Amino acid sequence: MKKSTIGWIALGLSMIVAYSWDSAKTAWIKSGIHLGLDPTAGALLDWNLTVGMLLIVFLLSLLITLIQKYTTDQVALRALKKQQKAMQKEMKEAKSDPKKMASLQKENMALIPQQFKLSMGSMAYTAIPFVLFFRWFNDYFLAAGNPKFFGFMGWFIFYLLFSIIFSSVLKKKLDVA
């Protein structure tokens, strides 16, 4: 089976899991995840909400980065990114020529599906676990009264912000395209 097909199947399954999280028919999934994450990630968050969340976000970012590195064709991804960068430079130079600009934009758009296809394999390994983790986060923070990080930030924005920061640093350190 092709990687892209597996990726789409994983994405579909993760959506099914996300939507059926509170269903009585799939209560075993929810209770199993809580059984594993409450004494681990939950204990970290109970110990110190901000530091625990930073550790969890860092570990998840590290896991995603390692999966991306070893499940994608790094050479092909680097070549695509190099090609896109060159095209962006050409587009800056062609601002005054609408015809050339349109042609370059069309070429650039043709690269997006290729990049998506190359990246889809890593999604197959991360989609379902991350949906389960996010559903658990939602349960945990609802039960904790939706605490705010730094006095104003909800858990999702906190996760998003720090995962971007950690992922950027880890991708550079681990040489991931």
Structural notes for this entry:
The chain is mostly helical. It is built from 7 helices and no strands. It has helices spanning 3-19, 27-37, 41-47, 49-71, 74-93, 98-143, 155-173. Helix 3 (41-47) runs antiparallel to helix 4 (49-71), helix 4 (49-71) packs across helix 7 and helix 5 (74-93) packs across helix 6. The longest helix has 46 residues, at 98-143. The chain is globular and about 55 Å long.
What pattern of helices and strands is seen along the backbone?
HHHHHHH
Helix content: over 70%
Number of helices: 7
Protein structure class: mainly alpha
Low-confidence stretches: none
Number of strands: 0
Total number of distinct structural domains:
1
Query: What portion of the residues fall into strands of 2 or more residues?
Result: under 5%
Shape: globular
- Whole-angstrom Rg: 20 Å
Distance between the termini: 24 Å
- Mean of the pLDDT scores? 88
Largest sheet: none
